[in-house]
Structure formats: structure tokens, C-alpha cells
Design a protein that fits this description.
- Helices cover 0% and strands 48% of the residues.
- The chain is mainly β and 132 residues long.
- It has a four-stranded mixed beta sheet with strand order 3-8-7-6, with no helix packed on it.
- Strand 1 and strand 2 (15-20) form a beta hairpin.
- It is elongated.
Length: 132
């Protein structure tokens, strides 16, 4: 039989949970750092072993989903393996402050950088004072 993983939606938080039906597919939550500036948020996620082809980033109904799958490596020349490659899965609930149409992503040396710009209405602005 084929391996199968079904995604179910948790109505309380609107966050996807994975239900294993046949073969376990293990996911680890990647470690992240999140910085905020006047322009937006920057999210750095550690995804060692994940390449562009195995990375999926999506925004649906205000939920940012990061899914990274490590490519299988041939074991022919393997002498010692001290860790098992893992797949990554993490979700974040986005507020209205983030302009979801302008999110940008870059993957470099196993570190994913997501730039989440603030919507114009959420950016701080100076109000000019007129003296009369």
C-alpha cells in the first residue's frame, strides 16, 4: 500500500495538524529568530539539509506555513551516520499588520530568511504640526 499522510484542520486555532495514517512522516519545528523594525518583521529559520526544491512556503487564511523536506542522500559511501535527517514543519498566525502579498523568502546555507513587510496602514508615521 502507498504511504499516506492526511492533513486535518484544527478549528480552534485554524492551524493544520498532521494525522499519520500508514507510515510515520516525522517533522521537527525549526528554531527561529524573529526581529521587528519599523518596516516589518524578519524571520530566520534554521533548516539544515533543506534545498530550494524541498522547501514549501505558503500563506492561507492568515496562516504562514513553512515546510522543508531534506533530500534523500545515497548511503553507498556512508561510514558513520550520527544523526538522522529530519523534515521541518512550522506555522505562524499572521496579524493584519503584515502585508501578506509582499512576503519575500531567501534560503542560504540552510538558513531561511523571510521578510514580512508591514502594511502601509500599520507603519508608524510622523504627523506634521502646523502653527497658526
Amino acid at each position: 500500500m502507498a504511504e499516506k499522510t492526511v492533513a486535518t484542520r484544527n478549528e480552534e486555532k485554524n492551524v493544520v495538524k498532521r494525522e499519520v495514517t500508514r507510515h510515520p512522516e516525522y517533522f521537527v519545528s525549526p528554531l527561529v529568530d524573529i526581529y521587528e523594525t519599523d518596516e516589518g518583521l524578519t524571520l530566520l529559520a534554521d533548516l539544515p539539509g533543506v534545498e530550494k526544491e524541498g522547501l514549501k512556503i505558503a500563506v492561507e487564511e492568515g496562516i504562514l506555513t513553512i515546510e522543508g523536506k531534506v533530500a534523500e542522500r545515497p548511503h553507498e559511501d556512508l561510514l558513520v551516520q550520527e544523526f538522522e535527517p529530519v523534515n521541518f514543519f512550522r506555522q505562524f498566525e499572521l496579524s493584519e499588520v503584515v502585508d501578506q502579498n509582499r512576503i519575500a523568502a531567501e534560503l542560504k546555507h540552510g538558513v531561511l530568511t523571510l521578510r514580512l513587510p508591514k502594511a502601509e496602514k500599520a507603519k508608524p508615521r510622523q504627523i506634521e504640526v502646523i502653527v497658526s
